[in-house]
Amino acid sequence: MLFKAIVCPSCQSTDIVKHGPSGEGKERYRCRNTECKRCTFILNYTYKGYLPEVKEKIAEMAMNGSGIRDTARVLRISPSTVISELKKKSLV
Predict the structure, then answer these.
(1) Which residues are bridge partners to 28 per DSSP?
(2) Domain named InsA N-terminal zinc ribbon: which ranges (predicted)?
(3) How far apart are CA 48 and CA 74, in angstroms?
């Protein structure tokens, strides 16, 4: 049996436990580091808009003056994903 080390995408901690399946049936993981700001994460997201790198890019493009439709087209995600992420970050 091969053991694959799982690392938290936020704090790079290896103190990770399984946290049950997501709604799509993918395994969720939880970081046990008390200082980590992230609760749970999935290793392989099916939708590109859920990736943390894409969420950072949405905020960056909004700060540089890109519109919602332009951001969605460049990142190849839904405009509603862009809007909801901007609302979470209070940039709308």
Answers:
(1) 42
(2) 6-33
(3) 12
Summarize pLDDT for 23-58 with one digit per residue, the tens. Answer: 888 999 999 888 887 788 888 877 888 888 899 999
Q: Is 3 within 8 Å of 16 (Cβ atoms)?
A: no
Residue 69 lies in domain:
48-88
Domain count, the chain: 2
- What CA–CA distance (Å, rounded) separates 74 from 80? 14
Containing 18, the helix (H) or strand (E) segment is: strand 16-21
Query: Do 39 and 54 share a domain, yes or no?
Result: no
Look up the pTM and report it.
0.63
Distance CA 72, CA 43 (A): 23
Same domain (yes/no): 30, 60? no
